[in-house]
Known about the structure:
Elements: E1 8-11, H1 17-28, E2 32-37, H2 41-53, E3 58-62, H3 68-82, E4 87-90, H4 105-133, E5 136-141, H5 145-148, H6 154-174, E6 179-186, H7 199-205, H8 217-228, E7 239-242
Amino acid sequence: MTQLDGQVAVVTGGSRGIGRAIALALGDAGARVVVTCTRQRAAAEDVVALLQQRGHEGQVQQFDVADYAATTTAFEAIVQTWGRLDILVNNAGIRRDQLLVRMKPEEWDAVLHTNLSGMFHCARAAARTMLRQRSGRIIAITSVIGMTGNAGQTNYAASKAGLIGFTKALAKELGPRGITVNAVAPGFIETDMTRELSDTQRQALLPHIPLGRLGTPEDVASCVLFLASEAARYITGEVVSVSGGLTI
Ligand code: NDP
C-alpha cells in the first residue's frame, strides 16, 4: 500500500496496544511515524525498530500529553525534524476505575488530564502546522464507554464523551481549511488495558458482542488507516464504533 507516502503521522501512546498497531499500519501505508510514550520508552523504541526493519522511517518522542508545555515543545521538535505534520492520532489514554463515592480527586484529574486535556494539547499543537499546510487528519481514540457509560468509570466516560464533543466542534472549526477531525470508538480490545478482565467477565461480555469476540488492536488500526487516507476525504465530525456490534 502506498496511499500515505511522504506523510508524517504522530501516534500518541504508540508504544503499546492499539497505538502500536496504528503506528505499524500507518507506517506500512507509507507514512513516517512519530511514536510517543510517557514511561515505556523501550517499548516505543521497539515499535520504531520494527518500522525501520520494514523499510519505513520513524522516531520516538517521550512526553506526557497531560503536560501542555512538554507537549507543545515536542510537537515543535517533530515539525522541526520532519518539516510537516499530516496525521495526528490522539490515542494516549488511561483508566483509573472507581465508584464515584470512592473516587479520589487525583483519580478524576489523572484521567481527565490525560484523556481529554491531552487531546486539547496535541490537537492545538498539530493544528498550527496543519492550518499552514491547509490539510490534515486528526483522529481521536474515544471509547464506546463515552456513549453508553459504565458503572465505576465516571471519570473515563466523561473524558471519552468529552472527546466526542471536542471532535465535532473542531471538525466545524477546521473543515474550511481542509482538515478533517474524526473519532474512533473501540469496544473491548485485547490490550494491557483489558488484560485484567477475568475469564468470567470475558464470558459475560461475549453475548453482548454480535461478532462474538473481543477486538484486536489491528481491528481498530484498520479503521484509523481508512480515516487517515484520501479515501475518507469527505468524512468529518464522525464517530465510528469498532466494537463488533457491542453498541447496536
Ligand atoms: P494501553 O494501556 O495498552 O496503552 C496506553 C498507551 O498510552 C501507552 O502507549 C502509554 O505510554 C500511553 N500513555 C498513557 N498515558 C500517557 C500520557 N500521559 N502521555 C503520553 N502517553 C501516555 O492502552 P490501549 O492500547 O488499550 O488503549 C489505547 C486507547 O484506546 C486509549 O485512549 C483507550 O482509552 C482507548 N480504548 C481502549 C479500549 C480497550 O479495550 N483496550 C477500548 C476503548 C478505548 P507508555 O507505554 O509510556 O505507558
